[in-house]
Design brief:
Elements: E1 25-35, E2 38-48, E3 55-65, E4 76-81, E5 89-98, H1 100-108
Length: 128
């Protein structure tokens, strides 16, 4: 290409925009699904006590936008920070990582045989 073929740089060309900061991503558990398109999600964390060193459970409560009302109470979800959507909502639902019912099924199907309950007898008076 010759220098005449390239367009001259004009002062009206757009400058590259600075990249915005990465948005925070968190994993939590849905604790309320009573609102339409809104979920209350708790993000648990452990904090070490400054004096005694014991670990204390703390939680952060986030109100999350769920466009399709897909999540239910007990689901483990991945959420991402977003612009303010309402007075309290600053997060949006990214993915549902685990359903609440699926966790209970895996515990029940652990492979350990379960003993059936003993048969009840009609005249059983507990040994007397």
């Amino acid at each position: 290409m010759s220098p005449a073929a390239t367009p001259p740089s004009s002062p009206t060309q757009e400058k590259p925009r600075p990249l915005r900061g990465r948005r925070k991503v968190a994993v939590g558990i849905v604790t309320s699904d009573k609102m339409n398109k809104t979920r209350r999600v708790e993000i648990p964390r452990l904090v070490r006590h400054p004096r005694y060193g014991k670990y204390i459970r703390r939680r952060t409560i986030c109100y999350v936008h769920d466009e399709h009302n897909a999540s239910r109470v007990g689901d483990t979800v991945k959420i991402m920070e977003t612009r303010p959507l309402s007075k309290l909502k600053r997060w949006r639902l990214v993915a549902i990582l685990a359903r609440a019912g699926a966790q209970q099924e895996t515990k029940a199907d652990s492979g350990a045989p379960t003993a059936p309950p003993p048969p009840a007898t009609a005249g059983d008076t507990h040994g007397s």
